[in-house]
Amino acid sequence: MVSANPLFRGTWTARKFQATVINDIWPEVLFFTLIATMGEMTSHSLGISNQLLTVLGTVLGLVISFRTSSAYERYQDGRKMWTNIITASRNLAQQFWIHIPVERKGDSTSLQNVIEKKTMINLILAYAVAVKHFLRDERGVYYEDLYPLISFLPRYANGTQGTESDLLPLWQESDEPIRQTTQPVTEMERGSQSTHSAATVDPEKGLAHAFDVNPPLKPARNPPATTLLDYIPLFRLFAWIAHVITRRAHPKRYRGKKRRHDEYVESQIPLEIILILSNYSAWCMRNGLLQPAIATGVTGNLTSLQDTLSNLERICNTPLPFAYQAHLRMSLWLYLFFLPFQIYSAAKWITIPGTAFASFLLLGFLEIGQEIENPFNYDLNDLDLDYFCLAIQRELHLITAHTMPNPSDFIFNELNQPFAPADRRSAKELTSTTEYQVPDANTAPGFASLRRTMVKGWKDIDILTRQ
C-alpha cells in the first residue's frame, strides 16, 4: 500500500512507476494525441461544431467521478474489514489467554493447559493468514506462513487410521496427497523457497519449522512476475491473437498485475478454522472454563470474524458489471476522439497539448477506479495484507507473553504512588498502617481523609494541565 511518494524514496526502479497509472494509460494518451496532431498537420479543415462539448463533458465527468468514488468506497470497506479482523483477533486472544484458567480439576497439567490455549491463539493467526491467501486467489493450505499453524489438525474423518478417501475438506485443496517426514526444513532451504522481492521482513522465520512436505510449501508472499505486458498494455492484444491462432487454451488465471474477475473465488479454509475455534469455545463452556459473560464475548468475536469474511468475499467477488465498464470506456474514447476536432477552430496548435492533457486526466481517473476496485492483490496501491497479518502475529505474541500475575504481587510495592500528586507516598508505605491519613496531621484518619486527598489531587491536576 503506497501512502507516500515512492518515486523518490529508496532505490529507484522502473517498477515504482506501477504505483501510478502512467504505464496503463500512456498508449491511449499517445493515440489521442496523434489524432490531434493529424488534425493540425492536414490542409483540410476538420473542425466540427462544439455545441455538445460542454454537455457531454460534464455528464462524462460526473460518471467517471462516480466510478472512481465507488471503487474507493470498496477500497475503504476492505480496510475497515481488516480492522475488524485485527480487533476481533486481539479480543479473542485476550479472552482465551486471560479468562480460561490454567489450574483446573482433572488429569491435565498446567503445562498442557497453557499449550492448549497457545495453540488456539495460533489458530486465530492462521485464520487471518488464510483470509489473506483467499483474497489473493491462492488456493490450498500449503504455504510457508499457513501450513505450520494448522498442520497438527485432524487430517482424516476416521482419525489417524483413515485413508485418502477420508480426507477432511481442509486437506482436499491439492490433487497431490501430502507425505511427511520427520526431517525439518533447514533455514537455507526455507530461504531458497522464498520469493520475496524487496522485502525487509521474512514472516516465516517467526513460525514453527515446517516438515518436509509434498507438495512443497509455497512462499507466503508470491506476487506475479512483472512482464512487458504490464508496461505496454497494447501487447495484450497481440498475445490474445497469438492464443487464438495457435488454438491454445487461455490461462485460467491471469498472472499479470491485476487479477481477473473471471470466476467466483471461494475458500472453506477460514470457515473451517472458525469451526475449530467455535468447537473449542463450546468445549470450554461445557466444562465450565468460561464464565457466561466472557462466553458471550467469545461468541461475538467469532461471529465478527465470520461476518467480516462474508463482507470481504462480497468485495472480492463483486466487480463492477462489465456492461457499465465497457460503455463508460467506449463513451470516453469517442469523446476524446472528437475532442480535437471540436476545439481546433479556437485553439489551433494548442489542440495537441490540450488533447493530451484531457486524455491523461480523464483516462487516469478511469484507470484509478479500476486499479483500486479489488484492493487485495500485490499491486503497489493495494492493501498491505502481509503487514496486517504480521501485526496480528506480533500482537498475539504480546498477549501470550503476559504472565497473568496476581494483582497483589505488583500493586503494593515502593514504586507505586497511587495518589500522586496529592500524596506521593508509595503503596507500601500507605498499607503499613490500618487506616489512611492525609499528610496533613490535623485531619483525622479514615475514608474522609482519603476523599480529601482525591479532591486535592483533582485540583492539582486541573491547575497543572491548564498552565
Which key features would you list for this structure?
flat; two-stranded antiparallel ribbon; 3 domains; mainly alpha; 2 strands; 467 residues; single chain; 15 helices
Provide a concise account of the structure shown.
This protein is an all-alpha fold and 467 residues long. Helices cover 54% and strands 2% of the residues.
Largest beta-sheet details: 2 strands, antiparallel
Shape: flat
What count of structural domains?
Answer: 3
Helix-and-strand structural type: mainly alpha
- Tell me the span between the first and last alpha carbons: 42 Å
Q: How big is the Rg?
A: 31 Å
Note poorly predicted spans: 175-199, 252-257
**From N to C, what is the helix and strand string?**
HHHHEHEHHHHHHHHHH
Amount of helix: 40-55%
Task: Give the number of helices.
Answer: 15
Keywords: Cell membrane, Ion transport, Membrane, Transmembrane, Transmembrane helix, Transport
GO molecular function: chloride channel activity
Membrane topology: Multi-pass membrane protein
InterPro entries: YneE/VCCN1/2-like
